[in-house]
Amino acid sequence: MSMRLFVSINLGEELNDYLAGVQGELEKVVGAIGCGGGGAVGAADSVVPSLRSGLRFALAGRKSGFHLTLFFLGEVPVEKVLDLQKELAAISFEPFKLKFKNRLGVFKGGGFGQGGGFIKAVFVDIDKNFNGYKSLLGLQKMITDCVGEFGFRDGRPFSPHITLARVGFYPREIAGDFEKVIFGVEVSDREFDVDAFYLMESELEAGGSRYSEVLKVVGR
Question: Using CB atoms within 10 A of its CB, is residue 212 exposed (0-12), middle (13-18) or buried (19+)?
């Protein structure tokens, strides 16, 4: 047997409610594309249902669970979990603050040729110039070193973000308008405290993933 695990910074109730509101604004502006609401000129109304259905919102219907992933472990044999918890619990760090960047970010991949690409995910970015960012990198490295002792590796560079939506298909002809409205959604550059990190279990369900806390490690 195994557990699907990740290590994260979990956001409080106030920020969860705020980000759910940003999702709502994102859904509204995307829905306006092709409907005469400031979207693509001449875009067919028929593209709108496919565009809306192509957005899969993180935590749809729930106002809790937004998080910043520090390390995704994937499937972990249950016999390793207790030892993993002990090692993670031994990590010592001082609490710090982070801040949202005041615009949404996107991940792209494939398609559209040179300099382009389909948007695959929409997220709230973290301000890399804020003074707590170096502390975040230090904490993430300690966690990476810790789980590395158990054989877990991630060759990708750490890119801290908070996922709002994943994107499926959308027509090439509205790509420019799609990106324009996403970057037009306002995000408050809110500061927030990081005084703990969590080992979380992710269980896949029909409506998305359900998260549950396995371990909480408090800064000191």
Answer: exposed
pLDDT tens across 3-55, in order? 999 999 999 999 999 999 999 998 888 877 755 444 443 443 444 444 554 56
H and E: helices and strands count for the chain: 5, 9
**pLDDT band for position 203 (cuts 50, 70, 90):** confident
Residue the block writes with tokens 């949404």: 104
Superfamily of domain 2-218: Cyclic phosphodiesterase (3.90.1140.10)
Q: How far apart are CA 94 and CA 84, in angstroms?
A: 21
In the chain, which ranges are E strands? 2-10, 55-57, 67-77, 96-109, 118-126, 161-167, 191-194, 196-205, 208-218
Inter-residue contact 36 to 48 (CB < 8 Å): no
Sequence spans of domains, the chain: 2-218
What residues are paired with 197 via a beta bridge?
A: 217
CA–CA separation, 209 and 201 (whole Å)? 10
HSE on the CB side for 17, CA within 13 Å? 3
Report the predicted TM-score, pTM, of the whole model to 2 decimal places: 0.85
Residue 208, token pair as written in the block? 């998305």
| Higher-pLDDT residue of 123, 63 | 123
